[in-house]
Amino acid sequence: MRFSRFSAVFFIALLAGQTVLAADLEKGKEINGTCAACHGDNGQGGKKGEYPRIAGQRPAYIENQLKNFRARTRVNIPMFPYTQERELSDEDIKDIAAYLASIELPAKMPTYTGQEDALTKLLMAEKVMIIPRAEGNLENGEAIYQKQCAACHAKSGKGRGMFPMLVGQYTNYLKRQVDLYLKGDRPHDEEGMEGRLNALKASDIQDILAYLTSIQEPKE
User: Fold this and answer.
1) What are the percentages of helix, strand and coil residues in the chain, rounded to 5?
2) Which of 53, 54, 101, 140 has the fewest beta carbons under 10 Å from its own?
3) pTM, full prediction
4) Which CATH superfamily is 9-102 part of?
5) What's the rounded Cα separation, in Å, for the pair 145 and 123?
């Protein structure tokens, strides 16, 4: 079997037992040229969380949100023209989601071997994604997160299935999304999850955000 149109093929299992999908990473990289205007070449986001990090995000979550933007079930005016059928088909959405999911942004500065030129060093450093520590009670944040959030977003905060990765995301962005949930301006991403955040105190939410910034670096 020849794949002359596809220079790179990436297989993703969304969940155990589900159909494995094939996505074209090169096509996804090409599409990312448009996304990069706001989210950066490496999908790192920017402007202190005005634009969220999308690199390394769960592919199923990216696909779902892009389709929600397109259908206006999640209202985001700047995203709407980029996600219309004439701009971003279902196949394109699959490709860009796979490409973004494949990008790794380390949480530690790189170790140079001495063989790198200046440009290579710069590019390596630009991929480092370290979110500043947020203030809060880490012990309380961990307890609440592991009890209330980990079932969907994983103990590590890296997400699961349709639920997004939270660790390594801009704190300001997460706080803004929480506020939208609380006001009812953005629905939760799975049926039956409504009200979970409303049951938490503002200080508890801040503690969870602080905890997430404390676990972005993997333990040695």
Assistant:
1) 45, 5, 50
2) 140
3) 0.82
4) Cytochrome c-like domain (1.10.760.10)
5) 34
Pick the CATH number of 138-214 from 1.10.10.10, 1.10.760.10, 1.20.1050.10, 3.30.9.10: 1.10.760.10
Residue type at 210?
Answer: A
> In angstroms, rounded to a whole number, what is the distance separating the alpha carbons of residues 159 and 167?
9
Neighbours of 118 (CB within 10 A): 7
Contact 66, 93 (CB under 8 A): yes
149/212 Cα distance (integer angstroms)? 11
Residue 109: partners with Cβ closer than 8 Å, 6 or more residues away: 125, 128
CA distance 7 to 130: 32
Q: Which helix (H) or strand (E) holds 24?
A: strand 20-24
Do 153 and 47 contact (CB within 8 A), yes or no?
Answer: no
CA separation for the pair 172, 131 (Å, rounded) = 10
Nearest in space to 218 (alpha carbons), one of 156, 140, 142 = 156
Domains 9-102 and 138-214 share a fold: yes
List pLDDT tens digits, range 97-129: 999 999 999 988 888 999 999 999 998 888 899
Q: How many CB atoms lie within 10 A of CB 167?
A: 20
Reported as a single tens digit per residue, the pLDDT across 66-97 is: 999 998 888 888 898 888 877 889 999 999 99
